[in-house]
Write a structure and sequence with these properties.
single chain, Tick-borne Encephalitis virus Glycoprotein, domain 1, 3 domains, eleven-stranded antiparallel β-sheet
Length: 414
């Protein structure tokens, strides 16, 4: 009697549903876990005369990997969540690549970011060049390591000063200009700036402005360490460079003389931008002084932007790019193969992996100091559990009815 096979398949199907519900409930608090659902389909054997011989039901379980979980904040910078489409690319200890939404990454003993399931976060090393997420290649991926030995010193190569020089100032005699470097040298205005040499040593630069004629000024740059014991002139060596500034007599804007180049002792040639300097009928004043370069510093942490750019932060206030963390997706995320630890492997049904930059077309953004909650709704799961239990019981009653019918048939024999 087909009643037995049909009812048994029903009990097995609802048993599978209960197993799926149990898996969902058990992972209600698993970071990045995606709700799974059981799908039922009819089994039919075709008999002679095109009559259907119903053979029960079969089940299949599918993870709803494209669902978005709730994003919650954390206090750990390397905790990452994806808002929108995409998965983190991770690897196991053997180097095999998988996809996951479990972004609970922390450094291991070697500084490699690894999540709670033991998968290593993969990215492109920005400081070393090579492949990038924009290229969509997996060949350049490597473990993201957040431990460095410190930052190499960066020498100063560019600087700028924005100032106003008083148009009403008196002219300085040629014999007493700072460029003469004598005890009688004088000037109209003076400011300082800090520049760094190749080893990260800081050097104070004295910058002098002296009016030499109407709408004409001399600018001189000296190494402060060469100043006299009393400070200022005469320096033990002449100016690092001298330039002439000329201004428009109508607008007070700088016409010529910028940029001024000078060499930092033990460092690089600096291009000093003075284009924002003006000559107006007001007192001398410096509105901004900037210069690149920095002293050596130790790593204080990392920052991760929404596009996946990981930047190392240093105690000297400097920073440098470290990695680009890509996102990956497949044409059919719900058909990927489930692996342990809330990871997924691509297959023929899901399609091949497509890698790109977070925030670009088709990909969501990355949120640092955040984790994605499980998509499991406990109320829904408990309701489904009651329904699955009732349906299992109904199929068992059908099986019992079939057994009773056999008893009746057996009782008909002579």
């Amino acid at each position: 009697m087909s009643i037995f096979g049909t009812s048994v398949s029903g009990m097995m199907g609802y048993s599978n549903w209960l197993s799926e519900i149990s898996q969902n409930v058990a992972n209600a608090n698993t970071t990045g876990y995606k709700d799974a659902e059981t799908q039922f389909s009819t089994l039919v054997d075709q008999a002679a005369g095109n009559a259907a011989n119903f053979a029960g039901v079969k089940t299949s379980v599918r993870s709803l990997n494209s669902l978005q979980g709730t994003i919650v904040g954390t206090n750990t910078t390397t905790d990452l969540a994806v808002q929108g489409a995409g998965f983190f690319v991770v690897s196991d200890s053997s180097g095999a690549l998988y996809l996951t939404r479990n972004g609970s990454f922390v450094p291991d003993a070697s500084g490699n970011l690894v999540n709670s399931a033991g998968y290593y976060l993969m990215g492109y090393n920005s400081s070393a060049g090579g492949s990038s997420a924009a290229a969509g290649s997996v060949s350049g991926l490597q473990k993201v390591n957040v431990t460095t030995s410190g930052e190499s010193a960066t020498p100063t190569t560019t600087a700028s000063i924005s100032a106003n020089l008083p148009s009403t100032a008196a002219v300085v005699a040629a014999a007493n200009l700072p460029s003469q470097n004598t005890a009688t040298s004088t000037f109209t205005a003076q400011t300082t700036m800090v520049a760094y040499d190749d080893l990260g040593g800081s050097h104070t630069m004295d910058v002098y402005f002296s009016k030499t004629a109407a709408n004409t000024w001399e600018v001189d740059v000296y190494d402060h360490s060469a100043a006299s014991a009393a400070g200022g002139f005469p320096y033990s060596s002449g100016p690092l460079n001298t330039s002439t500034l000329t201004f428009d007599p109508t607008t007070g804007a700088l016409k010529t003389g910028s940029p001024l180049s000078f060499a930092v002792p033990g460092g690089q040639t600096v291009s000093l931008n003075l284009s924002s300097t003006t000559q107006l009928a007001t007192a001398f004043g410096v509105s901004a002084t900037t210069a690149n370069g920095n002293a050596p510093g130790t790593e204080t942490g990392v920052a991760i932007a929404a596009d996946g750019t990981l930047t190392f932060q240093y105690s000297n206030g400097g920073s440098r790019p470290g990695y680009t963390i890509p996102l990956a997706d497949v044409p059919s995320p719900d058909n990927m193969t489930n692996m342990h630890g809330d990871a997924f492997a691509t297959n023929a049904q899901s399609g091949q992996m497509n890698i790109g930059v977070a925030g670009s077309a088709g990909f969501g953004s990355i949120q640092s100091s955040s984790l994605e909650n499980s998509t499991v709704d406990l109320a829904t799961q408990l309701t489904d559990m009651i329904e699955a239990q009732a349906d299992y019981q109904a199929n068992s009653k059908v099986f019992q009815t079939g057994a009773n019918l056999l008893d009746v048939l057996n009782g008909l024999k002579a």
